[in-house]
Specification:
This protein has 420 residues and is of the alpha/beta class. The chain contains ten helices and 16 strands.
Length: 420
């Protein structure tokens, strides 16, 4: 098939009518274009009513109600507290493929965000695009349901809570989201401000880093600030620990191995003239290899033990894994990328290097093969240039029909040619 060579424009009639697309591709594109006003309206609704992890009650209700209206089967709610799953059983026998979207927002203030769809929930914002992910997957459900008789297999839809550090994917798995029926592959997508709208970025193999959150408690002894020799100064010890921990990356991990260790929070002490008896450090560890992750944790303990004991104190460290390495099954990538290039145009689909952000989509990939990719939302003219997890973050809404087309096409092509 001749590949499309021009830049993709989400609402372009020319793109919909392009002769390089099959009749099915053109039908999906036409349906996505027709859905665009609803997609934008629904995404803005989700944006105005963001909900934190495991609190996505309103969002989940909107999702479930829409799936019922569309006539999907086996709709289940309350999975991992607020998760939703549903099925489209095709008119022909075949394999099962899963599609996933995350629903939770972040504890970020949006009061200075000057848009009509600004958050109505103080201190909470969709600053990572989950509002768009959920909406696009609902759009995929509508299009695939209209094509149900032609589908050779089953599509499972997974709307997940608590991606932002809450291990929502793992809890969905624990509560049966990948069972009855068991998919043979899973796809997920994420809007990405580093990529222009209309572009898609992917990586085979290790795509995104493992993610650990850790809390270190430095323990010492309180004393008067003018008589520090009578105490064990945890503020001083903590400062030495921060410096020593950074030496793990620079001096104790192979230079070819990717690793990031960040201390993001330091809290301790009650007054200017009192030696603090405890200080708490919080941070994150990111790696692209499980062995490197385990090595780094071992070295963290070794470093903390040596520094704190050497200065008369002690420590405790608690680590919570929020995601393993997001590993895109190379065979699944190889057979799916042609779909992306057919839909978007070859020059708009780019393989990039691994990224050090984390995603709990990785938990699904520990059970079945999966493919996670980025769809671009960067548009200088519209001002959608800000990173995720910032108060200014917003998306170029032209991505909405694009994401729907890409995911719907990937699902159908997979069902027609599953992994063997």
């Amino acid at each position: 098939m001749q590949m499309q060579r021009r830049d993709f424009i989400a609402t372009s009639a020319a793109a919909v009518a392009s002769a390089s697309l099959s009749p099915r591709d053109q039908a999906i594109a036409a349906s996505a274009a027709k859905l665009t006003p609803w997609l934008i309206e629904q995404r803005r609704d989700f944006h105005m009513y963001p909900e934190l992890m495991y609190q996505e009650v309103r969002t989940a209700k909107v999702v479930a109600d829409r799936l019922r209206k569309l006539g999907l089967e086996d709709i289940k709610t309350g999975i991992a507290k607020t998760g939703v799953t549903a099925l489209i059983k095709g008119g022909k026998p075949g394999p099962v493929v899963a599609l996933r979207a995350d629903m939770d927002a972040l504890p970020i203030d949006e009061s200075k965000f000057d848009k009509p769809y600004k958050s109505k929930n103080p201190g909470v914002k969709h600053a990572c695009g989950h509002d768009s992910h959920t909406t696009m997957l609902l759009g995929v459900a509508e299009i695939l349901q209209s094509m149900r008789a032609e589908i050779p297999g089953t599509v499972k839809f997974i709307f997940q809570p608590a991606e932002e550090g809450g291990r929502g994917a793992q809890k969905m798995i624990d509560e049966g989201a990948l069972e009855n029926p068991r998919p043979s592959a899973i796809f997920g997508q994420h809007v990405w401000p580093d990529a222009p709208t209309g572009h898609l970025h992917f990586t085979p193999g290790a795509f995104l880093a493992s993610g650990d959150f850790f809390t270190i408690t430095i323990k010492g002894k309180s004393a008067h600030g003018a008589r520090p020799e009578e105490g064990i100064d945890t503020v001083f010890i903590a400062s030495q620990c921060v410096s020593a921990l950074q030496a793990i990356r620079s001096r104790r991990i192979a230079t070819a191995d990717h690793m990031v260790l960040t201390i993001g929070s330091i809290n301790g002490g009650t007054a200017a003239n009192i030696i603090a008896d405890t200080v708490e450090l919080k941070g994150t560890l990111r790696t692209l290899n499980g062995k490197v992750r385990d090595q780094a944790v071992t070295l963290m303990h070794q470093t903390l033990d040596g520094v704190t004991k050497g200065l008369g104190g002690s420590y405790d460290m608690d680590i919570q894994t929020i995601g393993t390495v997001t590993y895109n099954e190379p065979k699944l990538v190889e057979q799916t990328v042609p779909t992306f290039r057919r839909i978007l145009g070859e020059k708009n689909v780019t393989q990039i290097g691994s990224q050090m952000v984390a995603e709990d989509f990785s938990f699904y990939q520990q059970v079945i093969p999966g493919f996670f990719y980025f769809v671009g939302i960067r548009n200088e003219a519209k001002g959608t240039i800000y990173p995720v997890h910032t108060p200014e973050f917003d998306i170029d809404e032209d991505v909405m029909p694009l994401g729907v087309k890409v995911m719907a096409s990937a699902a159908l092509d997979y069902l027609a040619n599953p992994l063997r």
